[in-house]
Structure formats: structure tokens, C-alpha cells
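User: For a benchmark we're assembling, each entry needs the component sequences followed by a predicted structure for the full assembly. Here are entry 17's components. Please fill in the structure.
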Amino acid sequence: MAVSAHRGAPLSPEEIYATALRLIDAGGVEGLSMRKLAVELDVNPMSLYHHIDSKTTLLQRVCALVGAQLSLPPDDGAPWPQQLRALGHACRASARRHPSLWLYAQSHPEVTGSDHRLWRALDRILTAAGIGPDDLAHARKALFALLSGFILGETTGALDEQGGAADLDETFESSLDFAIAGLAAFHR
Amino acid sequence: MAVSAHRGAPLSPEEIYATALRLIDAGGVEGLSMRKLAVELDVNPMSLYHHIDSKTTLLQRVCALVGAQLSLPPDDGAPWPQQLRALGHACRASARRHPSLWLYAQSHPEVTGSDHRLWRALDRILTAAGIGPDDLAHARKALFALLSGFILGETTGALDEQGGAADLDETFESSLDFAIAGLAAFHR
DNA sequence: ACCTGAACACCGTTCAAGT
DNA sequence: ACCTGAACACCGTTCAAGT
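Assistant: Structure for entry 17:
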């Protein structure tokens, strides 16, 4: 029992990331510890450090993994409001699948290393909406704030506690209407 | 040296909260530990538990303290866009004073115990803006998301990394314009 | 090469014992 | 009443020693 005392197969990074994501979905980022992860992988806690630098970079990789799975709307010439809605729904859907990871990523944006895919898609849609280059950064940031804040509020439950409609699907659609109408502020 | 071995005065909750807030502003919520707080107060770590239940409730009290200092716009009949801007500026100003605490509070909304002052002020302004009772909850949540997301992005630096204008004052004003224009979506 | 036990420097919190 | 030392059950991470 020299190599991998308890397991048949050697440890792979992919296995580590997938197991970490599963534990995070089940018990939150704050519930994930290197020691628990090792137990789940049936391995000595210190063995993990042969495959990953630190817990921080582990979380970074898991965030990248989830980010890569985002199905952003393609550049297919569809009407821009429809594309904007699709982008919003893609992010919200991912956040509902992995709420704790999104909460972590939103508080530690350095882990995503500025996901340029999202910004590029958003900029493309806003340009299609007739936003000029001078207003592009402002509009992008306002939309980022709205989307990010909605996801934050839904994830933490802050939006539930405010009363009104029980489920947030309708509220999200309203917020998208709000955003689409708000873009008029950038038409001058 | 029976009572308060190292200090002249006995420990007061207010002193604990104020010192905790100072340490949080200096080193972040994750940098605050009961042990460091005790050192700062020149007291045994375990003495703190005679005055506070737990670290969680300590953070709750500190959040409440900062929340109570929010200078929300009064109901003085000023035009509603002006009042909405004032409400936004009040929150952003507080967040810039205590970024780490706001980040914590936004991820743990249960600590604020649903700050009804803010919702009531917002509802009043939205009603003045002509939003009907059926749309009030939707509009409130959309505005909450935008404001909350902006503060989150500014606090974490996510909004800086996106390029565009270097300072965010102008972007915040743009976002307020965006919000005011977006409320048209709720006029039907 | 890969794994591992012991150890280090931290946590929050409990509890029995002091005055 | 108020304070405190020791202890418990955790952390992430290092490092020398094993095979």
C-alpha cells in the first residue's frame, strides 16, 4: 500500500474539482475544508497539496469550471432585448445551480480573473441596442450591478424577505423590463 | 487585580462594538477574531463572552450600528428623483466608509434583520414616482438589486476591472439615471 | 514520484475554577 | 458578579520522513 493507500485510482485534478464543487453545493464554501475534501476523496489531507497549490486556487479553478459552463447567447442576430434576457437567464440559472459558489465568486471577483466572455457578450448586445462607445462602460456597469445584485439578493434570500410575489421568476422578468427601459437613459 | 486585571474601566458593549468596527475597517471582517479583539481591548479573550453571545451576534450589532447611522432622505416633499439619488448616495457613502462590513452584511442579510427603514423610504419614493401598489414590490426589488450590486462591485473592485472611467462617481450617476429611466417600465 | 504523520499557528467556544 | 486558564474541536499549511 505504497501508492494511494485507500483508493484504486490515483488522484486527478478534475476529480478534486468535481468533488469540491459537489461539497460546496451541498454544504457551502464555508463548509468546505481541505480535510473534509480529503475524507470525501478517501485520501490523506496532505496528499491534496501534491495536486493543488492552496484552497484559494482550488476555489479559483472551481469557479472557472462553472464559469466555462455558462451558455451565453450566441451572436446570431436575434433582437437585442431577447439576447439580453438570455444572458440574464444564463447567469441566474447557473447561480441557482451553485448558489454558494456564486456568492463566493461575487465577494472575491479576483478568482474569476475578470471573465471577459461575459463582458464581451454584454458589450455586443449593448452596442446592438444602440449604445454609443462613450456610454458603453457606464451601461455595462449598470447592467452588471443590476444582474449581480439580483443574483446576490436571491442567493442570500434578501429579496425574499421583502415581501411581494413569493417566487422571483416574475420579479426577474420585471427587472429585465426595467433594465431594457433604463437603457433609454444612454440614448442621447 | 481581581476585576479587570489590565484595564482601568470595565468592559462595555459599546466599547466592544466600536473597537470591532475599527478593526473591521482596518483589516476586514475575516481579519477580525475574538482573540485579536480581546488584545485590542486589553482583556482576556474569554471575558468578551460575558458581554456578547457570539461572534455572529457581535457582527449583527455592529451592522445594526452602522445601519442606524444611514442618513436616509426625509419625507420633505422634494422631487422623487432627487430623493432617490439621495438614498443611493447615502448607502454608497456608508459602504465606502465601511466596505468590509457592507460586504459581510450583503452576504449575510439575516444580520440586518431586514432593515425596514430602507424599504419604507424606498417604497415612499417609488410611490411618489407613480408606481402603483401592484408593481411596488417588483420596482423595489429591481432598485435594491441595482444599488446592492453597484455597492458590491465597487467594494470588491469588480467594477474597476471592467475598464472605462477610472473613478466610479460618474458611473454611479449614470446608474441612477438608468434607474430613473427604467422606472418607466412600471408605468402602464 | 507520490504519499503521510506530526507539528505549527491559528480559529470560536465551553467550562470548571478562581477571586 | 466578573474574570480566567486550560481544554476541545476544528482550521490551512509546512516539512521531514517514509515507500
